[in-house]
Amino acid sequence: QVQLVESGGGLVQAGGSLRLSCAASGRTFSRYASYAMGWFRQAPGKEREFVAGISRNGGSTYYADSVKGRFTIYRDNAKNTVYLQMNSLKPDDTAVYSCAARDGVVVVTDGGRYDHWGQGTQVTVSS
Protein backbone atom coordinates (compact mmCIF):
# COMPACT_ATOMS: atom_id res chain seq x y z
CA GLN A 1 0.00 0.00 0.00
CA VAL A 2 1.08 3.56 -0.68
CA GLN A 3 -0.12 6.49 1.35
CA LEU A 4 0.30 10.18 0.68
CA VAL A 5 -0.93 12.41 3.48
CA GLU A 6 -1.16 16.17 3.07
CA SER A 7 -1.18 18.67 5.89
CA GLY A 8 -0.80 22.38 6.44
CA GLY A 9 -3.93 23.71 4.82
CA GLY A 10 -6.17 26.26 6.47
CA LEU A 11 -7.69 29.71 6.33
CA VAL A 12 -5.43 32.67 5.63
CA GLN A 13 -5.92 36.28 4.61
CA ALA A 14 -4.88 37.50 1.20
CA GLY A 15 -1.17 38.23 1.16
CA GLY A 16 -0.47 35.58 3.77
CA SER A 17 1.52 32.36 3.59
CA LEU A 18 1.03 28.67 4.16
CA ARG A 19 3.29 25.66 3.86
CA LEU A 20 1.79 22.39 2.74
CA SER A 21 3.44 19.06 3.45
CA CYS A 22 2.94 15.69 1.81
CA ALA A 23 4.33 12.70 3.66
CA ALA A 24 4.72 9.43 1.80
CA SER A 25 4.70 5.99 3.36
CA GLY A 26 4.10 2.35 2.55
CA ARG A 27 6.14 -0.65 1.60
CA THR A 28 6.12 0.13 -2.09
CA PHE A 29 7.30 3.62 -1.34
CA SER A 30 10.67 2.50 -0.11
CA ARG A 31 12.00 3.95 -3.34
CA TYR A 32 10.54 7.38 -2.65
CA ALA A 33 13.52 9.02 -4.28
CA SER A 34 12.48 7.35 -7.55
CA TYR A 35 9.24 9.28 -7.71
CA ALA A 36 8.63 12.65 -9.28
CA MET A 37 6.14 14.58 -7.15
CA GLY A 38 3.47 17.08 -8.01
CA TRP A 39 0.97 19.36 -6.35
CA PHE A 40 -2.43 19.88 -7.92
CA ARG A 41 -5.46 21.89 -6.86
CA GLN A 42 -9.14 21.89 -7.57
CA ALA A 43 -11.49 24.73 -6.81
CA PRO A 44 -15.28 24.27 -6.62
CA GLY A 45 -16.76 23.98 -10.09
CA LYS A 46 -13.36 23.95 -11.78
CA GLU A 47 -11.12 21.33 -13.29
CA ARG A 48 -8.14 20.00 -11.40
CA GLU A 49 -5.02 21.92 -12.36
CA PHE A 50 -1.30 21.40 -12.03
CA VAL A 51 0.34 23.74 -9.55
CA ALA A 52 3.96 22.63 -9.15
CA GLY A 53 6.20 19.63 -9.64
CA ILE A 54 9.64 18.45 -8.67
CA SER A 55 11.87 15.81 -10.19
CA ARG A 56 12.88 12.79 -8.18
CA ASN A 57 16.25 14.19 -7.15
CA GLY A 58 14.89 17.68 -6.58
CA GLY A 59 17.06 19.14 -9.30
CA SER A 60 14.22 20.39 -11.48
CA THR A 61 11.06 22.21 -10.53
CA TYR A 62 8.08 23.35 -12.57
CA TYR A 63 5.29 25.78 -11.83
CA ALA A 64 2.01 26.86 -13.28
CA ASP A 65 2.20 30.42 -14.57
CA SER A 66 -0.39 31.49 -12.01
CA VAL A 67 1.88 30.64 -9.08
CA LYS A 68 5.36 31.38 -10.42
CA GLY A 69 7.28 33.66 -8.10
CA ARG A 70 4.87 33.01 -5.22
CA PHE A 71 5.02 29.23 -4.62
CA THR A 72 8.07 27.05 -4.05
CA ILE A 73 8.15 23.26 -4.17
CA TYR A 74 10.93 21.30 -2.52
CA ARG A 75 11.47 17.85 -1.11
CA ASP A 76 13.34 16.08 1.65
CA ASN A 77 13.95 12.53 0.46
CA ALA A 78 15.31 11.50 3.85
CA LYS A 79 11.88 12.29 5.30
CA ASN A 80 9.85 11.06 2.31
CA THR A 81 8.19 14.45 2.27
CA VAL A 82 7.49 17.10 -0.34
CA TYR A 83 6.55 20.65 0.58
CA LEU A 84 4.77 23.53 -1.09
CA GLN A 85 5.59 26.95 0.33
CA MET A 86 2.87 29.37 -0.70
CA ASN A 87 3.44 33.11 -0.31
CA SER A 88 1.45 36.17 -1.33
CA LEU A 89 -1.70 34.10 -1.40
CA LYS A 90 -4.71 35.35 -3.32
CA PRO A 91 -8.40 34.48 -3.07
CA ASP A 92 -8.04 32.72 -6.44
CA ASP A 93 -5.69 30.24 -4.76
CA THR A 94 -8.59 28.86 -2.73
CA ALA A 95 -8.90 25.15 -3.52
CA VAL A 96 -8.30 21.64 -2.29
CA TYR A 97 -4.61 20.92 -2.76
CA SER A 98 -3.47 17.36 -3.40
CA CYS A 99 -0.06 15.85 -3.83
CA ALA A 100 0.69 13.08 -6.28
CA ALA A 101 3.57 10.75 -7.00
CA ARG A 102 4.73 9.51 -10.37
CA ASP A 103 7.11 6.59 -10.79
CA GLY A 104 9.39 8.31 -13.24
CA VAL A 105 12.22 10.74 -13.79
CA VAL A 106 10.48 13.81 -15.11
CA VAL A 107 7.63 15.95 -13.92
CA VAL A 108 4.51 16.03 -16.04
CA THR A 109 1.55 18.34 -15.73
CA ASP A 110 -1.07 15.73 -16.67
CA GLY A 111 -2.57 14.38 -13.47
CA GLY A 112 -3.62 11.22 -15.28
CA ARG A 113 0.01 10.19 -15.47
CA TYR A 114 0.52 10.13 -11.71
CA ASP A 115 0.33 6.81 -9.90
CA HIS A 116 -0.59 7.77 -6.34
CA TRP A 117 -2.65 10.54 -4.80
CA GLY A 118 -3.30 11.97 -1.39
CA GLN A 119 -6.72 12.92 -0.04
CA GLY A 120 -6.09 16.64 -0.26
CA THR A 121 -6.04 19.57 2.13
CA GLN A 122 -8.26 22.64 1.97
CA VAL A 123 -6.70 26.05 1.46
CA THR A 124 -8.98 29.05 1.82
CA VAL A 125 -7.76 32.58 1.18
CA SER A 126 -10.02 35.39 2.33
CA SER A 127 -10.01 38.83 0.76
Write structural notes for this entry.
The chain is an all-beta fold. 0% of the residues lie in helices and 50% in strands. It has no helices and eleven strands. It has strands spanning 3-7, 10-13, 18-25, 35-42, 49-54, 61-63, 71-76, 81-86, 95-103, 116-117, 121-126. Strands 2, 4, 5, 6, 9, 10 and 11 form a seven-stranded mixed sheet that branches. The chain has a four-stranded antiparallel sheet with strand order 1-3-8-7, with no helix packed on it. The radius of gyration is 14 Å and the shape is globular.
Task: Give short descriptive properties of this protein.
127 residues, 11 strands, 4-stranded antiparallel beta sheet, 0% helix, 7-stranded mixed beta sheet
